[in-house]
Structures are given as C-alpha cells and as structure tokens.
Amino acid sequence: MAERIGILTGGGDCPGLNAVIRAVVKSATRLGWETIGFHGGFEGLLSSVSFQKLDHREMGALLTSGGTVLGTSNRGRFAAKTGHGETQTIAAEILDEAKQNVDALGLRALICVGGDGSLTIAQQLFEHGVPVIGVPKTIDNDLEATEMTFGFDSAVACATDALDRLHTTAASHNRVMVLEVMGRYAGWIAAHAGIAGGGDIILIPEIPFSYDAVCRKIAEREAMGRQFTLVVVAEGARAKGGEFVTHAGVVTNREARLGGIGAVVAAELGERTGKETRVVVLGHLQRGGGPTTFDRLLCTRFGARAIKLVQEGTFGYMVALRASDTVAVKITEAIGRLRTVPVDGDIVETARMLGISFGDE
Ligand code: F6P
C-alpha cells in the first residue's frame, strides 16, 4: 500500500490555504504518497473521522482560489486558546481519539496548517505521539519564529487597495476617512498597508494613541493645505489607558470578536475637529479571495518544504521563512507569544520619517 499523509487547515481561513494543499498533494504524489484532507480543521480527526482523498489531478484551481476546500474551524472540542497568551490543555481523551484515528488510517505524518491557536493544538498532538508538521498561516502575521506567515501579503494588498480608493474620495470631499483593518494584537496589516497606501495616521495595538496627538496631525496637514486625512486603525488599537473595542461594543481583553474601534475613532475625531468624518470597516474582505502572487509562491514553497520535512522525519517542526529561505523551526518556538510590530523597528521608523503619525507624539 502507498504511504499516506494527512493535511488539515485550522483556525480562521485566509488566502493561500488551498495553494498549500495543492503544493503538499503534488509534492507527495511525486514521491508516490497518497494525501488525505481532513474536514473542518482538527474536528475531522475525531470519530466519525471526516476526510477525503486528494487527487493531484484535481489541484489545478487551488493555486489561485480563496478559502479552504477542506473547511476549517477555530472552536469545538480542540479549542486550545481562550485569550492572548492563555493556553488550555486539550482533554486527554480527545487527543487519544485523534491519535487512534491517525494510527488507524496509517498516516506517516499530519500536516497542520494554522496560526498560533492551531499550532498550539498541533504541538499537543505531537506530544501525544502524532507525527505533526506545521505550516504557518494568518493574515495578522503575528506568529513567532517565521519572518512572514502566508495570507498576510494578500490581506495587505486588499487593505492597500481600499486606501487607494478612499484617498480619492477623501480628497474630493475634504474628509477624514478612517479605515479599520484586522490585527488583534499586532498592527502589521495597518502598518504595511498604511505606508503602502499613503495613510497619514496609523493606529496599532503596539502604540497606544492619544486623540490630542491625532488631532494635531490633522491640524498640521490643514496648515500645509491638505484638507483631508487618511487614518488606518487596526481593530486591536487602543487609546492610551483605553481597552479593546469589541464587536458588541463590550470592553474585554479576552479572545472576543474585536471590531468597532474605527467608528469610535471617527466619532471622536469628527467631534474634536469639526470635520466631516467617515469610517470603513474592511473586515473579512481581507481574508476572502485568492492569494497574491507573493503568497502563491510562499504557500507553494511552504507546502513543498513540509513534504521534505515528512521525508526527513522532522516531526514537531514548522516550516518558516527566514532570510528569504524556507527552513524548519520547532513548533514550540512559534507558539505561546506573538510577534508584534517592533515600536522602534524599521517599519515604524520608515513611517515616521515620512511624517506618518502613530498618534503618540
Ligand atoms: O486572526 C485572524 C483574524 O482575522 C483576526 O485579525 C480577527 O480578529 C479574527 O481573525 C476574526 O475572527 P473571526 O472571523 O472568527 O471573527
């Protein structure tokens, strides 16, 4: 019987998941291995096991398509994280059941594609005897041990496109336009799109802002004859001494649904400056659709490298991007703490050199 490997996609979806699946299946097929894909993330590992055989001849459209053909979930019996830095231990009977099913299917390896939460689950499966390989995914780009996760570039492209569009309408009406983008604990999307899209003010979780400073920047622009301002705010940004704004308007620092900071900022700026202010929440548009060229390539490299790790038997490792190369790092190096935007790093410095405000000066 041919060797067999499994793959699953966990956590929130993002552009490029299908491209990873394609790369894994194509690379595995060339080695004579069969690949099965589990449905609904880790839940597919539990009885009655839900999976499908993945045929390399049916992978064509996956390079460019959004979402995940396998489905995903970040809730359910495998939920291993509840909030920032908090990890729950998955019940031993759940891990046992998954391990038994992996063994019964004769899997040589289980490739787990996911972010911090999913890789935390993957690590616990590994410690339970499942031969796991991780592939780092998240539009937030906040995973340690890799210079970039796939999905991030696609999300930035979407946010930058939104800013380009908002630019012309903001300028036409002399308005303050606030764009709320994703980024729970890390402001990578806001920072990169804010710079690439010509934003004037970028508010990120790493740098608590003050409304006085934001208004000063708007006034400074007006004094220079610029009657409009583009503000990019990450969903996890907070005013100094403030809290996360959640979707329901409730304040919490748990893993709740964030959202709403854009409207709060827009209302406050409108009140303080007397300028017409509008808000756009980009939301899941950033997660939908196909991957950019960069992400297609990164996903393909990650998928192929994952198969290489299976070949070598390097389990408990995750593929990562370092100095432009794909390498293997221990999953434990990637989980447990998030990679945030360094406040004195190159990205923030570049923005400040251009006169972009982070609302802190
Ligand atoms: O972690 C990725 C992410 O898109 C965050 O930026 C966002 O807060 C969260 O997922 C949204 O998750 P959901 O789609 O489950 O509401």
Question: Any overview of this molecule?
Answer:
With 361 residues, the chain is of the alpha/beta class. The protein is built from ten helices and 13 strands. The protein has helices spanning 17-30, 92-104, 116-127, 152-173, 188-196, 211-223, 261-273, 293-312, 331-334, 346-353, and strands spanning 4-9, 34-38, 51-54, 81-83, 86-87, 107-114, 132-136, 176-181, 201-203, 229-234, 277-281, 317-322, 325-330. A seven-stranded mixed beta sheet has the order 3-2-1-6-7-12-13, sandwiched between helices. Strands 9-10-8-11 form a four-stranded parallel beta sheet, sandwiched between helices. Strands 4-5 form a two-stranded antiparallel ribbon. Helix 1 crosses helix 8 and helix 6 packs across helix 7 (261-273). The longest helix is centred in the middle third of the chain and has 22 residues, at 152-173. It is elongated and about 75 Å long. The mean pLDDT is 95. The structure holds 6-O-phosphono-beta-D-fructofuranose. Residues 12, 138-140, 182-184, 235, 257-258, 287 line the site of 6-O-phosphono-beta-D-fructofuranose.
Bound small-molecule species = 6-O-phosphono-beta-D-fructofuranose
String of helices and strands: EHEEEEHEHEHEHEHEHEHEEHH
User: Proportion of β residues?
Assistant: 15-25%
- Poorly predicted regions are none
The end-to-end span amounts to 66 Å
Number of helices: 10
Mean pLDDT: 95
The largest sheet, given as strand count, sense and whether it forms a barrel, is: 7 strands, mixed
What is the helix fraction of residues, given as a range?
A: 25-40%
The structure class reads: alpha/beta
Radius of gyration: 22 Å
Strand order of the largest sheet: 3-2-1-6-7-12-13
Shape: elongated
How many individual β-strands? Answer: 13
